[in-house]
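We store chain and fold; example below:
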Amino acid sequence: MKKNERELCERLMIFFAMVVQIIASIISVTIEDFSKAFLPYFEYVVPAVNISCSLICLFLFIKPKHRFLQSVVLFLQGLTMTLNNLIFLGVFLYCLGIVLLFCYGYKKNQNVAKNLLFVIPILLSFFAILPVSKSSFFMGWAFTLFILFSYFHLYNTIKNSIFDLFPFLSGKISSVDLPEIGNTIRLSNYGLTERQIDILKEYLQETTSYKMIAEKFLISESSIKKEMAQICKTLGVKNADILSILLQQYEIEEFYV
């Protein structure tokens, strides 16, 4: 899928997420029975959360580059749904937020303590319902771990089997001696210059166009295209789209030094 097609799909996802938040806001102010909610001041908190998430989605629709905000929306909604006695939906949304952070690379260079911070709020949510139902508590945690590891399993399966899932791609990769899929790759070992690696890092941001890269490096757009063509040739791929798919299968050493 080309970069502009990916951006279109992402914007549409965000747009309909915003529509869902707006509809949820309307529904939340018309509900009369709050007896099953564990969240204090349900009739005020839930509409406030929905409206806030709607505004965040609107911002993301305009500025999709700030992808971490997608996880912020999912965390807010996940916690709200969990405390609203919609435990399974809340867990699903919360775990999806963690996985998106992982997929977008925000887990890089973070220690275990920081990663655990993502789990603490949902732990507190389940302790809030423990006095009401121990079975809900244990079932909630079991479901949390199941969903979380299912996401990561699916992510790693796709990541490490991209050429099995899409065999036509393998024919577009040359015989360049690359590491085994899933391992670390050092681009400088293949003759890429420091500037080419910096350009490639910008390109792999997915929301960065050749024009934006050229403006950042204060060179012409045609020079960026020539550099990318040379990078593709060096790594044995037909074009930049295939290059992007290929490099997503590796941990690139220079990006995390």
In short: The mean pLDDT is 77. The first strand starts at residue 184 and ends at 185. Strands lie at 184-185, 251-252.
